[in-house]
Every structure is written in C-alpha cells, then in structure tokens.
Design goal:
The complex is a heterodimer. By secondary structure, chain A is mainly β. Helix content of chain A is 0%, strand content 55%. In chain B, the strands form 2 sheets. In chain B, strands 2, 4, 5, 6, 9, 10 and 11 form a 7-stranded mixed sheet that branches. The chains are: A mainly beta, B mainly beta.
Chain lengths: 111, 114
C-alpha cells in the first residue's frame, strides 16, 4: 500500500501563473519530505525539502508547505516557466534509509 | 564529473535469462541505492548499500541480488528474469544518509522481459 500519494497525475498551467502540486502521506513516522523533478530520459533531481519541525521552506520560485496534522504537503512554483514542465515526485523519509515516493505529477507549462 | 552512470540504457530479456545492471558513481559517495519505477507508481527501493562491502534489502528485494565490491560501483543482478521485472531501474548515490544528504540519480535503465 502506497504511503505517499500524489492524487493528481497531471497539471497544466499557463506560463507566469502559480503551479500547486499536492502530496498526502499516511505514515506518521515520516519526518523529512522532499520533492524531486524528472525530465524524460533522465533520472530525478532533487528540488527542495522540508523537515517535519517546519511548516514552510522556500527556495527561489519554489516553496514547500507542510501540514502535519493533515499529513499533507504541497509544492508551489511561482511563476511557472516552460522549463518547469516535468514530472514532480513527492518523497518521504522515516527513521531508516528508505525514501517512499509518490507516483508523480506531470506538469505542463503552456506558453 | 560524470555523476551517476548506468549501464546499459536499454535491454530486452527473455523469461529466465539473467543479467547484471551496473551503476557507477564518481563522487566518492558512501551510500548507493537501486530503485524501480513502474507506471502509476513511485520509485520503489530494491536494495541499498551504506558502504563498500555492505548491502541491505529495500522495499521490493525479491528476485534481485546486489553487490558492492568497490565503493564506486553497485551491481544489480537478475538471476532468472520474469515479465514482472519489466521496469525502469534507477540507481542513486548519496554522501551520507538520506536524512542528511541528497540522493543523486542516474539516467535509468529500461528493461523489458518477454
């Protein structure tokens, strides 16, 4: 059973607008969360992370929000650019070495 | 720096055949990982290694074996391939444990088992 879920398989957004990607998790032992970005024919690359002791982390155009009580996190991309078109994976880490990944959300930024 | 490289990029096997996927990293990382990605699912950890000479099971280890004889290489073996092992395989490495350091991924190997 998947412990990290990304319920929206795809998202289409106009260039310059905000992209909001959502992720839900079930395991309350997760204490560190990451977002990875993946282009076709390439491996995932790290984008941004957040510890469970925080509720927000910002890096340039990317902001991750964590709501522990709801077991929900989101990634905001503002403003969205054509180069942001990719698959975005949410991942979570518990006390061992194993990252649990969501199924991914494909973002398409329209010009 | 090549980062993390994977060999081969593509492979087609018949059921019952064996093969080895090679992962190499030139970043002197201690930790290495093998994942598989299937349609509609996230990456799932097959096996991992916390240092040269060590290996450990991940989430979906059955049907796979691994070896880490050299720090820079992590090999994934399929002794008797099955159609259920058709997938894209990603190798990753990190300097330290995932809680403190980013994982760097290779470009993937697309394996089809007929």
């Amino acid at each position: 059973d998947q412990q990290v879920k990304q319920n929206s398989p795809s998202l289409s957004v106009q260039e310059g607008r905000i992209s909001i990607l959502n992720c839900d998790y079930t395991n309350s032992m997760f204490d560190y969360f990451l977002w990875y970005k993946k282009y076709p024919a390439e491996g995932p690359t790290f984008l941004i992370s957040i510890s469970s002791i925080k509720d927000k982390n910002e890096d340039g155009r990317f902001t991750v929000f964590l709501n522990k009580s709801a077991k929900h996190l989101s990634l905001h991309i503002v403003p969205s650019q054509p180069g942001d078109s990719a698959v975005y994976f949410c991942a979570a880490l518990s006390n061992d070495y194993k990252l649990s990944f969501g199924a991914g959300t494909t973002v398409t930024v329209r010009a | 720096n090549a980062g993390v490289t994977q060999t081969p990029k593509f492979r087609v096997l018949k059921t019952g055949q064996s093969m080895t996927l090679l992962c190499a990293q030139d970043m002197n990382h201690e930790y290495m990982y093998w994942y598989r990605q299937d349609p509609g699912m996230g990456l799932r950890l097959i096996h991992y290694s916390v240092g040269e000479g060590t290996t450990a099971k991940g989430e979906v280890p059955d049907g796979y074996n691994v070896s880490r004889l050299k720090k820079q290489n992590f090999l994934l073996g399929l002794e008797s391939a099955a159609p259920s092992q058709t997938s894209v395989y990603f190798c990753a490495s990190s300097r330290d444990a995932p809680s403190t350091d980013t994982q760097y991924f290779g470009p993937g190997t697309r394996l089809t088992v007929l």
